[in-house]
Amino acid sequence: MGKLWSGTVGRRFTILYATGFLGSAIVLLALTFLMSGSRLTTVAPEQPPAGRSNLAAAEQQIQDLQRQLSDVHAQQNHQLLVGSLIALVVMVGVSLLLGRVLAGRVLRPLRLITAATRRISAENLHQRLAVAGPVDEVKELADTVDGLLERLEASFVAQRRFVGNAAHELRTPLATMRASLDVAVAKPELATQTAVLADRLRTELDRVDHLLEGFLVLARAQHSTLADRTPVSLGELAQEALTARGADITARTLTVDDEVRSNAWTRGSPALLSRMVENMVDNAIVHNQESGWIRISTEHDDTETRLVVETGGRVLDQSQVDRLTQPFERLGADRTGSEGSSGLGLSIVAAIVAAHGGRLALLARPEGGLRVAVVLPSAAGREGVTP
């Protein structure tokens, strides 16, 4: 009974209503049975034949009538009992059915609210439940959810506005500082020590600019709508990323096992998906051992498209790997302050994957290294042929 009662609200309401109806039926049948057992049946006696000699025959006839009356009364009670049991069994089914109907009727507004709430996401926070009807507990609940959505929408809008304003306000002084630095370095009488300092400042400015760009991409992936959804080939993006980082791959003498297919299509923002693939490739290059290897592959079927990037290296802790999707999370001291790394790479990948309705899986390979797998909904290519 505990497991049965611990189910859904609809099941609990069904049990509650069915118990109430069944209890009422049992009480009604019990009262009917008790009242039928207290009824008195009288039979008018026949006039005995005249004469004293017929007295014994009259008494025998009276006894026979009483016995017959008792048998009839017992048979009626038995029939009433059997009929009551049959009615009780029927009422069990009727009570469950009626309880289910009433429970569904009572919970129907809540189901509508739940379905409408599930359809509302960060892309359509402007929508409201707008439940009509009398002012009752259900409408109060819907109005409360509408108020919560309104506050969430205001918070999202304020956050987007802050990101846009911060980007504008920060990039302007960065550009001014870089220009002033370039002008100072261009002077012929610049001392050697000052030139070295200028180079170091320029490097730090580039890192700050790279970090700012990462913040903007992360904010866009997390809080913006994807209005520019078009068919995109993850295979082509992977080939472009490998070509763009060819010099870095050569410098670190990395071996690339390329199993990329150009027909791995998905649908989404080309700019964000390109950044996603670039970050996956960059992560495999920067956080790799010297003379290591990279394996990059694509797979696809009618429903999903996959991009997998694997690297070798030391054995990693899966609990630490699971935290790499959080901003500024790195694995160990060797990753802290990595050259050219902002600590946002995989967090940006995770945000872009989530914005496109996909899944990101980070796996510490048992033999050492990291496996990063992205799964996105499959789509038709530019030729209109489903991969």
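The record above closes out task 2.4. Task 2.5 opens with a second protein, given below.
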Amino acid sequence: MSWLDPDDDEPEFDEANIRMRPNPKANRPRTKRRPAHADARIARVLGVDRGRYTVLIDEDGPEEHTALATRARELRKQAIVTGDRARVVGDTTGDDGTLSRIVGIEERTSLLRRSADDTDQVERVVVANADQMLVVVAAADPEPRPRLVDRYLIAALDAGIRPLLVVTKTDLADPTDFLAHFEGVDALEIFTSGQDEMPIDEIGARLAGHSTVFVGHSGVGKSTLVNALVPLANRATGHVNGVTGRGRHTSSSTVSLRYVGDSGTGWVIDTPGVRSFGLGHVDPANILKAFTDLAAVAEECPRGCTHLPDAPDCAIIEAVAEGRLGERGAARLDSLQRLLSTFAGS
């Protein structure tokens, strides 16, 4: 039927015959509220690969298994990293061809971060919820880099993570002079390892009950140590270039591996080898907090005191000079100033 009436001078519109073009934007819900996902399961993020997340469902439970997940649309701006405790919905069976969805991240207890360089304020989250950092450095081949180790320590102290240090390849060189740089850092526990003797049991005892992130320069033997601690890890190992003295990157991604030892179980988080570690995000006040006795004296320092050797009226420097901080006061002040100068000069 036409909407024109031939007997009328003016046409009339028959609204019943008008076809409305759908407007997708107008039909969208106006609210930003999302489902509560009360049925979400808590899972540990074990690794990330090209937008897909390997998660551990029912950790330590009778139905523990891994599954593959993607992120929900509302989390597109949320960093999801190894070590995160994620809220997962959908098909969490882990069967071939299934894909679950991460809809939320539980509150993190710690964040190990780095920046591209020292002037970059944009932080890169390395790992979440770790409570220990194990720094691996070689006594030789490649030569140890105290400043890089300092940067690792600063990042750990800023994140509230306990630092450990393993010196490998001690059969090639004596690490005594290198280790002298760190004798004033009480928070640091040190292990040494040679080709024929690796302190696996001692290191393993420190891993039990903890989530430990392994960091180190390429070629220092980090992957070899990880494989010794977690035999099923099968992390690729490499060699040092004889011309450049640099190691080849063998670990291409960050991954969580379960450690099982006589002392208990824990998590080893292996990271790719790096040659730099930016500190653009660090709060220098957190460095001083690691030296509790010095921090107490620093309360008497003038406002804005850097605690560096040229700082006027620094209470810590005066206390050390007067012998009020004991025999190790000078060594501890030297360690503090070295870390602060590394950050200040960054």
